[in-house]
């Protein structure tokens, strides 16, 4: 959990801007700059900015923060260097100034010291309160870079949960919120994450298996595709996703961890806190109230999502005061990486309309 000193120290936050080497992109007309936000704890957060070259205003019309989910960090999730693989590029091309965040423990951000020790030596790392602290630091930095009073937020899967927790606690900082395939509550049944799952302590039903989960976990390239494959009903998975996007996703996920090639097969590390949060949410143990979301909210759920449930989307949309609900038929959990004809166009059109209205 974030300490009181950590939260108080956000008032003294310093944002360090570090120039990045040129980045190969799906849209070469866009500009990318990699930045780091220095934290009072001597840790730092990685943030990539994506914008159009003609977006030179000191204060842009809109800033959008994108947040990854439980295991794959920001660049692999939102800025792949192939056509159809960069939600960040799509939003920036439409005129938004886009920021992609890695929480601590992910990608190019600082990793907790416990991630250098065996996973069994620590409890699940980066729980909701830790994520909210990092989001607060990133939003403060983005407001400083742009001069804007509010930032729009888009979170995928657990990223939507974390952003929802932040937005519920800090509604004055958020212009608009988009949550995509996000757990929230409304049911205590889940096929893979709640009671009866591998996350439950077999000796104490209803309790997280903290020891079995550990502080962090390893993910291989192959582990990224199982649920995606099973969500596409055709034997030929290329009907639902471009193989170039899928390959770039695996490449970027492994490249996010400099230690990935030291293991056989190669694997990247991710904190386990998101899975601990998911266990609670799957049991309908909510960690924030949608009723506290004072901003417009767009709730998006793919009809073939394996992570969120229909009850999550419906409950969140019903309880948030200004919410819209969109069901994307035929889309998977990876809707923003699916083919245009498999739901990506419907998703993107809805997000752009919502952010622009």
Provide structural commentary.
- The protein has 357 residues and is α/β, with parallel strands linked by helices.
- Helices cover 29% and strands 20% of the residues.
- The chain is built from 11 helices and 11 strands.
- The strands form 2 sheets. It has a 9-stranded mixed β-sheet, sandwiched between helices. The protein has a two-stranded antiparallel sheet with strand order 8-9.
- β2 and β3 form a beta hairpin.
- α4 packs across α5.
- The N terminus is likely disordered.
For the secondary structure, the number of strands is 11
* Poorly predicted spans: 1-25
What is the helix/strand order?
HEEEEHHEHEHEHEHHEHEHEH
Task: Determine the structural class based on helices, strands and strand pairing.
Answer: alpha/beta
- What's the multimeric state? single chain
**First-residue to last-residue Cα separation:** 36 Å
Q: Beta-strand percentage?
A: 15-25%
Could you give the order of strands across the largest sheet? 1-2-3-5-4-6-7-10-11
Total count of helical runs of at least 4 residues: 11
Average pLDDT over all residues: 93
Which overall shape is indicated by the principal axes computed on the Cα atoms? globular
Helix content: 25-40%
Radius of gyration: 19 Å
What characterizes the major β-sheet?
9 strands, mixed
